[in-house]
Amino acid sequence: MRTASNILHLGIKELRSLYRDPIMLALIVWAFSFAVYTAATAVPDTLSRATIAITDEDRSPLSTRISSAFYLPYFVPPELIDRAQTDERMDAGRSTFALDIPPSFQRDLLARRRPTIQLNVDATTITQAFTGSGYIQSIVSGEVNAFLRRYRATEQLPVDLALRVRYNPQLSRSWFYSVVEVINQVTLLSVTLTGAALIREREHGTLEHLLVMPLTPFEIMAAKVWSMALVVLVACGLSLTLVVQGLLGVPFQYQGAVPLFLAGAAVNLFATTSMGIFLGTVARSMPQFGLLVILVIVPLQMLSGGFTPRESMPEFVQIVMLAAPTTHFVSLAQAILFRGAGLSVVWPQLLAMGVIGACLFGYALTRLRRTLSAAT
Amino acid sequence: MTSQPTGAAVGTSAEAIARLSDVSLRYGKVCALDAVSLDIPAGCMVGLIGPDGVGKSSLLALIAGARKLQTGRVEVLGGDMAQAQYRATVGPRIAYMPQGLGKNLYPTLSVFENIDFFGRLFGQDRAERERRIAELTESTGLARFTGRPAGKLSGGMKQKLSLCCSLIHDPDLLILDEPTTGVDPLSRRQFWELIARIRAERPGMSVMVATAYMEEAAAFDWLAAMDAGRVLATGTPHELLARTGTATLEEAFIAFLPEEKRRGHQQVEIPPYQAEADATPAIEAHGLTQRFGDFTAVDHVTFRIMPGEIFGFLGSNGCGKTTTMKMLTGLLPPTEGQAWLFGQAVDAGELETRRRVGFMTQSFSLYSELTVRQNLVLHARLFHLPEATIPARVEEMADRFGLAQIMETLPDALPLGQRQRLSLAVAMIHRPDMLILDEPTSGVDPVARDGFWQILIELSRRDRVTIFISTHFMNEAERCDRISLMNAGKVLVSDAPRMLVEKRGAATLEAAFISYLEEATGVGEPGPTAREQPVPAAEGAAHLDARDPRRGFDLRRLLSYSRREALELRRDPIRATLALLGSLILMVIMSYGITVDVENLTFAVLDRDQTTTSRDYTLNIAGSPRYFIEQPPIRDYTDLDERMRSGALSLAIELPPNFGRDVDRRRPVQIGVWIDGAMPLRAETIRSYMAQMHSLWLTQRASRISSEVLPASPFRIEIRYRYNPDVRSVPALVPAIIALLLLLIPAMLTALSVVREKELGSIVNLYVTPTTRLEFLLGKQLPYVALGTMNFLLLTLMAIAWFGVPVKGDFLTLALATLLYVGVATAIGLLASTFMRSQIAAVFGTAIGTMVPATSFSGVIYPVSSLQGAGALIGEIFPTTHYLTIARGIFSKALAMPELATSFVPLLIALPVLIGLSVALLPKQER
Q1: Which of B277, B228, B281 is nearest to B257 (CA)?
Q2: pTM above 0.80, yes or no
Q3: Are A143 and A186 found together in one domain?
Q4: Is the per-residue pLDDT at B136 higher than 60?
Q5: CA B220 – CA B600 distance, rounded (Å)
Q6: Is residue A43 within 8 Å of residue A15, measured between CB atoms?
Q7: Which domain of life does the UniProt lineage start with (chain B) (predicted)?
Q8: In terms of CATH architecture, what is B601-705?
Q9: Are residue A72 and residue A211 in the same domain, yes or no?
Q10: What DSSP letter does each residue of B361-402 carry, written as one string?
Q11: Contact flag B331-A212 (C-beta cutoff 8 Å)
């Protein structure tokens, strides 16, 4: 009872402290509104504005037809160049793709000699290289087939592929990246806020002051965990409804998706705030804490499955990252918000986050106890 | 103290060293100086006296040129301090030692390195610096400690070192802001002797001192008494005493105060202490010892304090007082020995005893973000006073400690005296039986201190609260029932103050204390004896040298800042290691994280046909082991839905009934394919893989069915993936990762290095030395450019050795570009630091400000040309974009300078623009 009341009042104190820090508040608002919005909208859907150069050595009706088939928004209008210019343009990174239509392409085609078109791809811009070359192949084939159809009837492919993309039929990136960005901000803020709150108390001597009062390290830590988690949770909920659903118009699968997601976020926050306390006990000063945060946050953001698919990572990375709460959080978020999964599907993730959180909390508490007793 | 008032110098305004007319200064709503006009006589010791927060420090900072003048006129050494030009000229003739122990020092640097740094700033050559440092350390008794880091010195030694740093350039005006606050009596006496000797050698030098110790001020030549931003009275100490008809300056000062402030002040009277016969001691310590490594902070301390007693602990800073108190409160488990509170052994886990103790730490340790009332209520709740009684108790404390008027104020806005009263009120809120107070009155003015003691005495005598207090004010020590003198972790002697004076046959308690100290340390630190010989003749020449520091840009001053920053970086190995090792670790992580090779996708088939043809189709997909991994077959649509929803399947394929037959008969047939679109990038890749494999299967199938070679496609497209033929992520990403890391870490470290100086106070050295802003910024930047370059070499080595990504192009061009890029990155850090005030904001702000544009808008994943809106604009101007073009060009495309020259241009423009902006935004004076 006493413990509960101490935790409550200390937590309210944390909230009041944060309320007096306008810069931090502004950063939180910024992180959950503007940052989410730009991250979601800056990245183009699928292929966009790819640069292509065409060397037309054929100068036939067909080659002209191909050249004019590349247009916005997928491609910046193609530049017609000499063959000699290709290298220079690609070296300077001005063209990602260079298409070379050989002399007498049309004639060879009609004579069924299977002519070859060469496509040069700058493979250093790897995402665009890959999707872009797929687009170019289908555009060129489309034009060639349409051209041929006027001369002779070609046999239709007998087997049709009915491709359907579920959950996000347009493959809109903004749906995905807005949610990923919210998750990233949740992690970053919860770790930084709690860790910095601890270090600030130590630097200002108030931690010592708390220790001479009838309070236990458990109460001090639990108060920070609940209060900072609450702040982030509220910000996350607002961001999800106002920015993601409202401004960006991302449809979630069913009515109860947001509350269930927030429940998952709360469990995740329990783990990440504990992690913040842990880092706060490791770092001796703010600069060290700053570096540590980077070292922890970057892998959490990049290897949790929000940035690239988990399946594509090396196996040991996948296994190691199972210990990170964010891995489960990302898969929970995708399941609930996009695939419309309910509690019956996501309970393993909730359980995993809870267990990880409890371990982190316990370990951070032991460390906090130890550093406090050694505090000078 | 040897200085005597010399009639000629005093009071003659013709010879004023500084002249203030109508000077006012406000910090927000608080008025620090209120239309002050004052002529300060030259060539003598001038004292500013008055309580804390009356404007003494502001006045001195204005005269030193460290703070920006708001209204009025300040003339120092005959010129207008509002003009930057004049400040630059006169700066080297003024030395300023700010308030706070060693605030202008660098704690990780040694004594020698600290003084050396200042010598370099004033353009002294090596021989001269060494001679001066030898002289100064010799005369201050620091000669034996030149190798010790400044942070490990005692308070007195820190102040002496600070003085050495101020005196290195032979100033004409020495400004000392509370130089002896928090310093023990012996060190204090040595400090003033030192000043007197220096003045004897350089009679022309004027000294201005702000002090809270009235006894010290009594020996000065000329005084200005201040209160509430105004000057109350000026004159020699003698004149002030004569005017008020009082015996001591302390009384004289109180007499000068306006009537309403004096009201309520009365002499502190202490009723005698009556011991109870057989009470349990309130505090008992036996052989308490605390060792940190091989340093013994507290050495077998033993004492016993009875209930209701006021027990004083005296000693210099760092003698072990605070450590002893921490052991008593259970904050610090003793290495040896045992302590008891109320007869119970002290145990860190024991909460019950803590409820009976009120504790007040040395520094103000309440929450500055909570109002006075919120602080009181919070602590009442934490001590579990019944909720109903809390408002009444809070009011009671507010009345008793005179806080009623300021209940809704934030502590930061209050003067120190009121904050200390608040601390005491908080410590008393739960009616403890014992108070442990660690230097509660440090920095509090005499009137407030007397008021504070009235409360303590009332608590002790009326409520029988045991009070354990540490102090370095002798008149406070005299009020204790018993005191212990501590030095270097040992208790020298414990007794009633009166008895100590008698035992020692000394005139005052201070004299008695000093004599005990001298006995313990063997006549303290040497010094008085060492400085008999006159200053060498070379000094004349040195004067000229110091007087004429290059006013414009000076490389030596710049390098001296770089040197110091590099030293500090070297002394904090954790920071440097994290920066270097951290980026290697991050590179490994990112190379896995940013991989866009989508592989190992899970798929399953709902095969309604179950013929060899349908199985052949499935095998075709599953047969590409790198891309797809087959899962158990799907039973029905419900199964399909569930497994896709849980994320177990990324791809589901439905082969319709009669699939095989229809294919053979070339009847139109449709295969259903569902792709999990939750992750668009992955879905897109799956779609394209699927389409490719489907057409591959069709071609194979067709050629198997009929002998006729069907033209699957009438032409071929030959794709050449250039620069990275395997289309692997790693070679494409390594240059990008290097670009990211070389931005993030140098920017953050540089920002922190400047903000840290702001937060810890050593930025004042920029304000009061001839250093220009450009020298300061470039000087701080250089070490981090070096660190960044080192980082680059390590990362490149790792790219080659670990990732097998060779540098195909011209390495020299790459190195040149990197140097430029790291320069830009650190300049971004500098620019950020001009906005930030706290270190945490610097960490957070630079992280957000660099990471987002660098990862999203600079072409790391999506080419800049494909971006739209604000992102595209940021991408065009952000330096990472251009460095990335160069890095990729050299790493992957085997290019060299001529092809990449255009990408150098934006970087070459960014560097001076960023540094110019930083210089313009960094103030050369405190605002």
Answers
A1: B228
A2: no
A3: no
A4: yes
A5: 84
A6: no
A7: Bacteria
A8: 3-Layer(aba) Sandwich (3.40)
A9: no
A10: -SS--S-TTS-HHHHHHHHHHHTT--GGGHHHHHHHHHHHTT
A11: yes
